[in-house]
């Protein structure tokens, strides 16, 4: 990074950000394409942000397609990164992840793959507080270079956070933390439903996705199903991500598997146990074997789901829909 | 299990994690709003809700306000749909964390991997951060919660976890003690209680150093001192906690029948 970039904390200059937006085709047009076509919209070395959080609405189908394509050296950001962080490191798709927490989930303990890559210095886990990640996307969404906040102060997390600055508040004289805006090159977000133009309706927890879509320079949506624009227009209050931010729409049922998609399926716990077991003893060899078996060998997304197994899928589906039982 | 609890009359009746959950739950009061992490904090908050604090409002960092988690369906993190069951409101992660900053949260409640005399918590690195012996998962919402709310921390009491100085401050306690927390720009919140399988600890109002407030049945002052990596004052007349009741343990086991968090 040059000296200007250093001073900017990696923040995209405002007019550059606006120019990138101005030059996009933001019209109400059909953006439906295949996973493979959408994967070509991401280039090596770009900053890719992932929607969802931990084991929820992880854009797994898109990550799967990117890893299969052999994409390299992505900088990846997410609120909390789970299984997919391991696989991005293990596949070489990324060597730099910005997040607040990194492991498959507390139930499975500390990720052995994350440990193997970070402790050896092969990859970098850049830690920010959860709220800092949220406000960094928020600043990006608002078109301002930073947001002020009151946590992270006094901590080791602040000492290591690149680009964060403290300041004396001009109104009160208090010490505040300023966190730099994140404007990802591409946001990958998985949703329950959207139309062909990219109007997305989210059920349940929205995590940081709405700000992330506004902050990003491009957005690729994967969706459980594509609905008509008429259906979207019947309940526009449910539309959380607007078509004008979206560049690609891919219909991928079970596109978050083995993680959950609110109201449709819960995490595939058996498969997540299997992944943890495969990577427990020898994380490098285990992750390689996992990628081979579940990422490279299946010929398409349906074949990937077949490998995970119909019993797993049906169980996750049954648990997922049970949220509407009472 | 420690020798002390093994000698206690009801020792075989509960695990160390169950003891943590019960003792933590008793610190929550009806009407409070508590920001709970997953694991023991979640379990303790639900236990409190079903016993002494039916009007307790639980917040999860996934963006959930006031849910009723279903027994036997504990979430694996605070970000799955199980957390959202019968909630009053769902918001974004950023918005629920901003509730901490705005002052709507009475108690922050989480677990810890390593803690020091001033209540600073480490969940990031064991060893030097540049070349860590172990890279831990990191802060999550921990830093935000500890920066902005009165904190209850529930953790196992071991010498390697209770250290003079943490390897890395992930979530701030009272930093270097005295007024250093406030001076760093953290005027609100701070460590309130640390609940362990040996006792209940608090912090001196002036020095902000950890002290013992109560010991669990069968635990001696010598034991808790020996299992702490810094000088820990124990008052001569230190009270002894009431052991977990069958009622409390029954609820915990109904909530977590597979012993995900209470093994």
From TrEMBL, chain A:
GO molecular function list: transferase activity
Pfam families listed in its UniProt record: CoA_trans
InterPro entries named among the record's database cross-references: CoA_trans_fam_I, NagB/RpiA_transferase-like
Keywords (A to Z) from UniProt: Transferase
Protein name listed in UniProt: CoA transferase subunit A
From TrEMBL, chain B:
A Pfam family assignment: CoA_trans
Species whose genome carries this gene: Ancylobacter crimeensis
Chain coiled-coil ranges: none
SMART domains linked to this entry: CoA_trans
Annotated signal peptide: none
Lineage, highest ranks first: Bacteria, Pseudomonadati, Pseudomonadota, Alphaproteobacteria, Hyphomicrobiales
Keywords: Transferase
Protein name: 3-oxoadipate--succinyl-CoA transferase subunit B
Statement: the UniProt record of this protein carries the keyword Transferase: yes
Domain of life per record: Bacteria
GO MF term set: transferase activity
């Amino acid at each position: 990074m040059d000296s200007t970039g250093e001073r900017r904390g990696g923040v995209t200059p405002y007019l550059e950000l606006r120019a990138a937006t101005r030059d996009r085709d933001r019209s109400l047009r059909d953006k439906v394409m295949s996973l493979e076509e959408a994967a070509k919209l991401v280039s090596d070395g770009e900053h890719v942000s992932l929607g969802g959080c931990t084991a929820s609405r992880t854009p797994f189908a898109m990550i799967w397609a990117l890893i299969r394509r052999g994409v390299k050296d992505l900088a990846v950001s997410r609120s909390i990164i789970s299984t997919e962080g391991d696989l991005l490191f293990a596949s070489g798709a990324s060597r730099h992840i910005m997040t607040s927490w990194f492991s498959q989930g507390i139930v499975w303990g500390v990720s052995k793959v994350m440990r193997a890559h970070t402790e050896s210095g092969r990859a970098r886990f850049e830690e920010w507080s959860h709220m800092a990640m949220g406000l960094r996307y928020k600043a990006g969404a608002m078109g301002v270079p930073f947001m002020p906040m009151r946590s992270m102060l006094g901590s080791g997390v602040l000492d290591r956070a690149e680009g964060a600055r403290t300041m004396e508040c001009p109104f009160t004289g208090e010490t505040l933390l300023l966190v730099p805006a994140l404007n990802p090159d591409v946001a990958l977000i998985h949703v329950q439903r959207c139309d062909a133009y990219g109007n997305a309706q989210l059920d349940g927890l929205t995590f940081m996705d709405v700000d992330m879509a506004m902050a990003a320079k491009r957005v690729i949506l994967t969706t459980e199903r594509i609905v008509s624009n008429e259906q979207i227009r019947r309940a526009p209050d449910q539309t959380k991500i607007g078509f004008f931010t979206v560049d690609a729409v891919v219909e991928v049922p079970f596109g978050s598997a083995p993680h959950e998609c609110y109201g449709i399926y819960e995490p595939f716990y058996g498969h997540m146990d299997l992944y943890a077991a495969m990577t427990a003893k020898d994380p490098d060899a285990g992750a390689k074997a996992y990628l081979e078996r579940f990422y490279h060998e299946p010929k398409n997304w349906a074949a990937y789901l077949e490998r995970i197994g119909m019993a797993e899928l049906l169980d996750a589906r049954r648990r997922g829909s049970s949220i509407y039982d009472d | 299990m420690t020798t002390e609890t093994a000698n206690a009359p009801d020792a075989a009746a509960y695990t160390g994690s169950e003891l943590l959950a019960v003792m933590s739950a008793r610190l929550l009061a009806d009407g409070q709003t508590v920001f709970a992490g997953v694991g023991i904090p979640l379990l303790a908050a639900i236990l409190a809700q079903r016993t002494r604090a039916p009007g307790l409002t639980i917040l999860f960092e996934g963006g959930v306000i006031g849910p009723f988690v279903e027994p036997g369906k504990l979430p694996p993190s605070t970000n799955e749909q199980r957390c959202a069951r019968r909630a009053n409101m769902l918001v974004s992660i950023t918005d629920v964390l901003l509730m901490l900053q705005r002052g709507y949260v009475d108690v922050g409640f989480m677990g810890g991997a390593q803690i020091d005399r001033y209540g600073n918590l480490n969940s990031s690195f064991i060893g030097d951060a540049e070349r860590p012996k172990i890279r831990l998962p990191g802060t999550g919402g921990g830093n935000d919660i500890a920066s902005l709310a009165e904190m209850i921390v529930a953790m196992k009491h071991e010498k390697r976890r209770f250290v003079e100085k943490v390897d890395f401050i992930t979530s701030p306690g009272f930093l270097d003690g005295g007024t250093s927390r406030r001076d760093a720009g953290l005027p609100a919140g701070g460590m309130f209680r640390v609940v362990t399988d040996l006792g209940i600890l608090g912090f001196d109002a002036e020095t902000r150093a950890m002290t013992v407030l109560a010991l669990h049945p069968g635990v001696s002052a010598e034991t808790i001192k020996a299992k702490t990596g810094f000088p820990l004052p124990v008052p001569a007349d230190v009270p002894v906690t009431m052991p977990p009741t069958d009622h409390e343990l029954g609820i915990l086991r109904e909530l977590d029948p597979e012993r995900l968090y209470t093994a």
